[in-house]
Write a structure and sequence with these properties.
With 248 residues, the protein is of the alpha/beta class. The chain has a single domain (5-243), classed as 3-Layer(aba) Sandwich (Rossmann fold), CATH 3.40.50. The protein has helices spanning 44-51, 93-98, 113-125, 141-154, 171-186, 201-204, 221-224, 227-234, 238-243, and strands at residues 5-15, 18-29, 33-37, 59-64, 67-68, 76-79, 159-163, 190-194, 207-211, 215-220. Helix 3 crosses helix 4 (141-154) and helix 4 (141-154) runs parallel beside helix 5 (171-186). It starts with a strand and ends in a 5-residue tail after the last helix.
Amino acid sequence: MSKKSLTVSDLYVSYHGNEVLHDINFTIDTGKLIGIIGPNGAGKSTMMKAMLGLIPKDNGGIEVDGKPIQDMRKRIAYVPQRSNIDWDFPIIVKDTVLLGTYPKLGLFHRPTKKDKEWAMECLAKVGMEEFADSQIGELSGGQQQRVFLARSLAQNAELFFLDEPFVGIDVASEEVIIKILKGLRDDGKTVFVVHHDLTKVESYFDDLILINKELIGAGPVERVFRPELMQVAYKAPLKMLGSLGVGV
């Protein structure tokens, strides 16, 4: 069985005339758990949003197996940063997860009993079924993140994009989430994660995309997570990189 791939070509993004991403090019195999890393302000979230067409880009193409990523829209799940979500919106947990079934329902179709059962099954997968009738805003950060992961599972997607899913959550939730993401990978799904904790990189990811406004490296963790590349990206002395979890 031939491997599929995702390719980003000549990606440029600017905000208000200031270039944020410059000439990003990489090809990466699908069916992997892929970390997007780089210092604060490197453009990690911007790159993810540009790949998904959520923000305008100056130039660039994103293809999966030679086809535009837009053609796969219904097979893509996106979990934004928690800070970008309105947690005061009055919606209960099970209805939040049920939203994941909407992309495949089409216009004017309402979720069926089967869809509702599937949403509850996804909630159970993240260990949150007992909170089904709770308001989303009443949950802890880790619980909220699990619910949004359940919503993405409900989409039955092929590609998953998560923006900083481990920020501000408890250890137990992080362990649940990474276990599920690895399970998705093992099922042949492709998972991209914007990530900041370098101490977890080697145990979490198969491949890495290392950027700082431009691409520093992309490929297997052992090839990218090297002191010389990390030093270029983080502009830090080697002794400082050691404290960040980079072997020196």
